[in-house]
Amino acid sequence: xxxxxxxxxxxxxxxxxxxxxxxxxxxxxxxxxxxxxxxxxxxxxxxxxxxxxxxxxxxxxxxxxxxxxxxxxxxxxxxxxxxxxxxxxxxxxxxxxxxxxxxxxxxxxxxxxxxxxxxxxxxxxxxxxxxxxxxxxxxxxxxxxxxxxxxxxxxxxxxxxxxxxxxxxxxxxxxxxxxxxxxxxxxxxxxxxxxxxxxxxxxxxxxxxxxxxxxxxxxxxxxxxxxxxxxxxxxxxxxxxxxxxxxxxxxxxxxxxxxxxxxxxxxxxxxxxxxxxxxx
Length: 280
Known about the structure:
Layout: H1 2-39, H2 59-69, H3 72-103, H4 109-118, H5 128-137, H6 144-148, H7 155-168, H8 171-179, H9 184-195, H10 197-213, H11 216-221, H12 230-235, H13 245-265, H14 267-275
Helix pairs in contact: 1-13, 2-13, 3-7, 3-10, 7-10, 10-14
């Protein structure tokens, strides 16, 4: 009898958990759905009462307005180049640094690691003026190189990689590889890298989406419309006395689609990096 009561309680609690997850998922997806709805409606629907929650038929028309105002595909291409380059370089530097901090002993190791972590608490706005001065002196204004070069060193990425390597790569495996005559880079390439691929996916998604959505630094460095990223290009749509919300949200919607595709493509690795705690 007690077992049946326990089974019923577990079933009821499981139902409530699933209902909570379903409601949370719907609430999380609603802003994206509302953005899509506004992208298919005229600008007047933005302030309508009651709010409009059903899609209209102006998605193509609104997007044509975007194409008339900005070089949308050129800005998207610049953003893809920027995000892919920064993501690949951050993954390489962060994994190498994380491997070194996790498995090697060298003078000042703890000091340097603490100094890297302390940079996480510094607001990026505080470094805007000196960073702009350095980029201007280097002649990198109005270039994608000027936007990306300061993003290559990622303190969060180094911390995540260091923690993942520490927990997933046993010291005995490193020592065995050294006894076999492997160099440090070969150990990284042949042993560490295959193990930390799920962490690569997680960090890659974080960096890619962060660079894609960053605006302040890109807006500061880029002035040539031909070099605009998608965020700066979309910001130029709202200049003037009258704002066409349907047009703007149409551009935002199509600019968000690549991020959704990237997340869905790496979703399995992203989840495995969170749940995985053992060595493959």
